[in-house]
Amino acid sequence: DGGITQSPKYLFRKEGQNVTLSCEQNLNHDAMYWYRQDPGQGLRLIYYSQIVNDFQKGDIAEGYSVSREKKESFPLTVTSAQKNPTAFYLCASQFAGDAYEQFFGPGTRLTVL
Amino acid sequence: AQKVTQAQTEISVVEKEDVTLDCVYETRDTTYYLFWYKQPPSGELVFLIRRNSFDEQNEISGRYSWNFQKSTSSFNFTITASQVVDSAVYFCALSEANDMRFGAGTRLTVKP
Fold this sequence. Notes:
The structure holds 2 protein chains of 2 kinds. Chain A is an all-beta fold. Chain A is built from no helices and 11 strands. Chain A starts with a strand and ends with a strand. Chain B is mostly beta strands. Helix content of chain B is about 0%, strand content about 55%. Chain B is built from no helices and 12 strands. In chain B, the strands form 3 sheets. In chain B, strands 2, 5, 6, 10, 11 and 12 form a 6-stranded mixed beta sheet that branches. In chain B, a hairpin with a 2-residue loop joins strand 7 (about 60) and strand 8. The mean pLDDT of chain B is about 95. Chains A and B meet through strand 9 and strand 10 of A and strand 5, strand 6 and strand 10 of B.
């Protein structure tokens, strides 16, 4: 079955630690995205990538980093520089172009202890 | 820059009532696409519909219908005879120039 997987579903981190969230897709999509969602709020774009080995900052990239070494994978690292990392993180992918919808993974809920 | 406004933060209805979720957008482009997504309690967003800026025909899919009006820059979503399973957060989105922007979402609660 084609789709997007994110792991882990729940993640706990101590302050000062870096943590990496996984996102894999087997839909042959060109573009991949990371969003952050806080309680009762909409989606805010962290980073996106339209092609392998290239990515762009979104609206709230500070304290985050990404890589796109393979078309299928777009991991997000939440660094210790992110001041308030507790949130729900959603990964999405789509074919290139405005006409296409984004497909979303199940999300990772990160809690900083 | 484009913008999507969902003014209704939360809506609560009783089962079998009809409910309309509002979406107003701003854009300077003539070519753009509008979307609606559903986010159930599990968290994963599910795509519902896509509309391009040149197609103003309304669409109906079962109990769901969408009203796109360029004159008022609106793309409203109506659920007829709501059911408890319709309880979710619904997002409207606008895509243009490879940039998709989401509204803040409307939380719909359907009570039995």
